[in-house]
């Protein structure tokens, strides 16, 4: 595994990306005896509360501030939302035809804040707001797409081509408080934790794998020229697991 550093002057620091290994090819097969990986991500220790997002433009529609999604933790249960969970490498397995990611611009936020997709497939990008949004995605310093959506209700599909699998940072050139993360892999074995901190990855061919979680940083390391907080490096963990045939492997993680 390699660790790649990326910089940013926007509200969020772009992450130091933990790049998954690239298999170079993936074979679709019938997974008759597949297993399931399930689990939860929780937060340990005192839970920080990220600063709200200051809206620099179109505040009459968006509001003066919006809640930050840098860290979303359930107050009583400490479940962590928006954590990426994925297999480091999968050479064969289920079809990825059912993976149809949609990134929406809704109420001046990108929804979902974190999503996954398969390399070389289409991402649907929607504008639900009566505002111009300009979606700018970059990976390792290279633009993946730069797309203007001036019409409310407009949806455009773009083929996502990256040199290697990893995390792509998506920002809005029109509204710098907006941001999302897109995990692009060679295979469909990934998930993003929900509001219960839960994830499920199904139909995994039996065998040994490395399972990784990734979460953006919530630690403020400074402020940019517009007084927006900049965040440090993301957190990541990797476990070696063995998926049983027609069984369930439960893996829980704690970040802090």
Can you describe this structure?
The chain has 1 helix and 25 strands. It is 2% helix and 48% strand. It has a 5-stranded mixed beta sheet with strand order 11-17-16-13-14, with no helix packed on it. Strands 4, 19, 24 and 25 form a 4-stranded mixed beta sheet that branches.
Largest sheet: 5 strands, mixed
Beta strands, count: 25
Categorize the overall geometry. Answer: globular
Structural class: mainly beta
Mean pLDDT: 89
Assembly classification: single chain
SSE run? EEEEEHEEEEEEEEEEEEEEEEEEEE
Strand order of the largest sheet: 11-17-16-13-14
Instruction: Show unreliable segments.
Output: 1-23
C-alpha-based Rg, rounded: 18 Å
| Number of helical elements | 1
Give a quick rundown of the structure.
The protein has 256 residues and is mostly beta strands. 2% of the residues lie in helices and 48% in strands.
Name the features:
256 residues, mainly beta, 4-stranded mixed beta sheet, 48% strand, disordered N terminus
Write the layout of secondary structure elements.
Elements: E1 2-4, E2 17-19, E3 27-28, E4 35-43, E5 53-54, H1 59-62, E6 65-66, E7 84-87, E8 92-93, E9 102-106, E10 109-111, E11 114-118, E12 122-127, E13 133-139, E14 142-149, E15 154-159, E16 166-172, E17 179-185, E18 190-192, E19 198-204, E20 207-215, E21 220-223, E22 229-231, E23 235-243, E24 248-250, E25 253-255
Parallel strand pairs: 3-8, 4-24, 4-25, 9-12, 11-17
Antiparallel strand pairs: 1-2, 4-19, 5-6, 7-18, 7-20, 9-10, 12-15, 13-14, 13-16, 16-17, 20-23, 21-22
